[in-house]
Fold this sequence. Notes:
The complex is a heterodimer of chains A (182) and B (207). Chain A is an alpha+beta fold. In chain A, strands 1, 2, 3, 4, 5 and 6 form a 6-stranded antiparallel β-sheet that branches. In chain A, helix 2 crosses helix 5 (120-149) and helix 4 packs across helix 5. In chain A, strand 3 and strand 4 (68-74) form a beta hairpin. Chain A has a domain at 29-151: Sandwich (Jelly Rolls). Chain A contains 6 helices and 6 strands; from the N terminus they run ααβββββαβααα. Chain A has helices at 4-7, 18-25, 82-87, 108-116, 120-149, 152-155; strands spanning 29-33, 38-40, 49-62, 68-74, 79-80, 94-106. With 207 residues, chain B is α+β, with helices and mostly antiparallel strands. Chain B has 4 helices and 8 strands. In chain B, strands 1-8-3-6 form a 4-stranded antiparallel β-sheet. In chain B, strands 2-7-4-5 form a 4-stranded antiparallel β-sheet, with no helix packed on it. Classes of the chains: A alpha+beta (182), B alpha+beta (207). The interface between A and B is large, with 40 and 38 residues.
Amino acid sequence: MIPTRDLARIPAFDGFDDRARKAVGAMMRSYAAHDGKVVVEQGTRSGGAYVVLSGEVRVVRELGNGKSVDVRTLMPGTMFGLLSCLDGGARGASVIARGQVRYAEIPRDAVTELLEGRTPVALLFQVAVCRTLFREVRSTNRRLAELAAVPDTEVATMDLEPVPVFDELDDLSEDLEPLPDL
Amino acid sequence: MTTPVEAGWSQDPVIRRMAEELRSTDVFQMLDAGEAQHVATLCERRLLGPGDVLFEEGNPALHLYLLLRGQLQILVRSPDGEAQVVVGTVGPGSLVGEMAVLEAVPRSASGHAAVTCELLQMPGRAFAELVASAHPAAFAILRQLQQTLSDRLRGLDARIDAVMDDGTRPAPKPMLEPPPQAEPTMWHLVDPATTDGHLGGSGDSDT
């Protein structure tokens, strides 16, 4: 469970009232990950949706030719992993911890319940999903434009600027619940 | 002799017709008569001739649209600003601009009528009210939005693969945010606070 006060600081959940935060927070579980830990693995269909609570994660897409490309960097407060929950398809990219990271998972069955629900809480969640996907489209678009302009040999070593999906967000690592072992 | 009005249907023929048109689309087919009529009262009909501008890139987005008939061209300005390039088309049944009340950014492309078009337009503020009241139409619009955004993101993954896999670097075609299912749709974001709440008249306050 994620405390409502922590969810109140997550931009993706702007517009949620305390009741909605409590309902969604009750569905979430918090985890810790060390540098390099694969939170989401490309090609798999397991897991739910996630929120970065503190630290950064890299979204990395492995290509058919064996290369991999950093698609974007996600900052605290960003939701990820929604696409596979929405369409049931495989994960389109891996999400890898950069440094120490804390994140929360909304299990897939809970995500499905919220996406298919017709309650005010479900509606707020669906708005949050749309906002997140929209920002993801925009940031991926920018990344695509960058990739198209960079010589092939430089792509793998490009130092990415974190995509400012959300404005600065305080570190949420304090006051988190005890973490399950990973 | 009068024709009995179906239970739940308005006797206002204009509202009734709009509601029937709404329910004839995939997006709103699940609305019942009363729900569709409520949405209809928030909309106004727009007719465009070939070449007419529905909205212009860079302008504030004040409405979302449901295209009933015709075809819209979506255009973006070239980097040097000298030309407009068609990046997609939108066909009947498509929603355009659903993100309007969720984000506040200017139009990312222009929408021009390729042929004679008939649309229903809804002010961003009215959409926001549908969301605030958890109206079934809000769920319908959000579901459509999720679908098109998901499709777009999958498409972007494929584009990244295409750009990176073959070693070439073709300039990526601008992508709209968000797009359509089958064809690119125009998406725009409107700040409800800036909408005029205008429900009548024929002027296009987006352009």
